[in-house]
Amino acid sequence: MPRLLNCHTKGLIEAGCDEAGRGCLAGPVTAAAVILPPNFRHKLLNDSKKMTEAHREELRSIIEEKALAWAVASVTHEEIDKINILNASFLAMHRAVEQLKIVPQALLIDGNRFNAYPNIAHHCIIKGDGKFKSIAAASVLAKTHRDEYMAKLAEEFPQYGWKKNKGYPTMDHRAAIEKYGTTPYHRQSFRLLARQVKLEF
């Protein structure tokens, strides 16, 4: 496993930012912003996609306890349909940064694009969740908080398998859409079926 870096620019208060749910067919896109102590270390910390669900849940509580500041925010499926998923991802990150109890001096963004946040410099880092601790921590919080929300929605609509697929475009999820139609939580601006057909509401 590559060693994650503590910071991008020494001496600055940096918040790592990442999102979860960008490629999903249903539910919100959720982002987290995390400011870690300079000496934060944990052997499990990595890109959340490379971790087991149990390890993510274990790290979530540790990050929330040890972080100097953290926040999680979402953009709803309705908002995604209005402003598109890329802008929604940026908006979710902005909402998370707004809620931080400490104002960061720089933002480390997972990815290659970002809409600048007022008065705070940012650095876009491709695959940043595998390079910087704060981004990796943000990826864990975004993923676990969104997964928790989708599991709650799954109780209302169990036939779509959201407890397991979390709204991602799995074969089972798309088969359920074809069989049962859409729910109020599906993103209507997304191609919901492999071969798009007229959907019933």
TrEMBL record:
GO terms for molecular function: manganese ion binding; RNA binding; RNA-DNA hybrid ribonuclease activity. Residues 12-201 form the RNase H type-2 domain. A divalent metal cation binds at D18, E19, D110. It is found in: Cytoplasm. It catalyses: Endonucleolytic cleavage to 5'-phosphomonoester. The keyword RNA-binding does not apply. Its cofactor is Mn(2+); Mg(2+). Its EC number is 3.1.26.4. Transmembrane segments: none annotated. Keywords: Cytoplasm, Endonuclease, Hydrolase, Manganese, Metal-binding, Nuclease. GO terms for cellular component: cytoplasm; ribonuclease H2 complex. GO terms for biological process: DNA replication, removal of RNA primer; mismatch repair. CDD domains: RNase_HII_bacteria_HII_like (cd07182). Signal peptide: none annotated. Manganese or magnesium. Binds 1 divalent metal ion per monomer in the absence of substrate. May bind a second metal ion after substrate binding. InterPro entries: RNase_HII (IPR022898), RNase_HII/HIII (IPR001352), RNase_HII/HIII_dom (IPR024567), RNaseH-like_sf (IPR012337), RNaseH_sf (IPR036397). The keyword Chloroplast does not apply. NCBIfam families: PRK00015.1-3 (NF000595). Belongs to the RNase HII family. Endonuclease that specifically degrades the RNA of RNA-DNA hybrids. This is Ribonuclease HII.
